[in-house]
Target: Myosin light chain 7
Amino acid sequence: MLTHGYASKKASNKRQRGGQKSCSNVFSMFEQSQIQEFKEAFGCIDQDRDGVIKKQDLKETYGQLGKLNVNDEELDEMLNEGKGPINFTVFLTLFGEKLNGTDPEDTILAAFKLFDPNGTGFVNKDEFRRLLMNQADKFTAEEVDQAFALAPIDPTGNIDYKSLCYIITHGDEKEES
Model:
């Protein structure tokens, strides 16, 4: 989730400035309350309170969570996602990319259409559950239940996947109101 590997200080500063240009709009992606929650999370991870998340900060955070055997490669991988020093703006940008990093709606629709050969706009909930739990990246029953909690399912047990795709890519209107 974060990253490692800093070249020279000059290159690092150059990357940071470039990164900030591309993420100057990141604050408009979130509600003020969400930004505050991210600030709190950033503060919890930035153990030495210097405004930048480093490998030692991650080690200490993992240690507080009881995970003491995190290897340096994992931490480096996380830090490399920032493509330079991870200050709060970069941290917020990483989360923005992850949260808004879903596939485009048409890509998700095309995937669902593979399970809807008749083009009805619906897939059977029970059949889809079976596929999710037994194919590729297998879902647990709990993960399927979480996914189905958002899904518009009609009384006959069919998922309206067009509406679900909209919810996945735009959010659930019920959550926002």
Summary: The longest strand covers residues 122-124. The chain has ten helices and two strands.
